[in-house]
Write a structure and sequence with these properties.
One of its GO terms (molecular function) is ribosomal large subunit binding. It is built from 4 helices and 5 strands. By secondary structure, the chain is an alpha+beta fold. The chain has one domain: Beta Polymerase, domain 2. It starts with a helix and ends with a helix. The relative contact order is 0.22.
């Protein structure tokens, strides 16, 4: 799967789980870690974990493996690392506090 396809796939799978305010940020040239960040909001701890679990499961169904998943036990901010794209699923208060869109845009 090409990077553009992966980016769209991850955002679509987060949307399947009713993730809110899904934003894709192009950080190519700004970050040495990834090319795209997808940031979205879950309404509760359980919702954040469910979104990340669903996306990880769907990725595996198409033959890809996440490089890492972090934060999935706490459910406040879960990061799914797919190499060229990182998915950040956050509770509203953490999203407002860290303002990743503002930081990377």
């Amino acid at each position: 799967m090409q990077r553009e396809e992966l980016k769209l796939f991850l955002a679509d799978k987060a949307d399947d789980m009713k993730a809110q305010d899904i934003v894709t940020i192009d950080v190519e040239g700004k970050s040495s870690v990834t090319d795209f960040m997808i940031v979205c909001t879950g309404t509760s701890r359980r919702h954040v974990i469910s979104i990340a679990d669903h996306v990880a499961s769907e990725v595996k169904k198409v033959g890809l493996e996440p490089l890492g998943i972090d934060g999935d036990t706490e459910g406040e901010w879960v990061v799914l690392d797919m190499g060229s794209t990182m998915l950040h699923v956050m509770q509203e208060e953490h999203r407002e506090l860290y303002q990743l869109e503002k930081l990377w845009s």
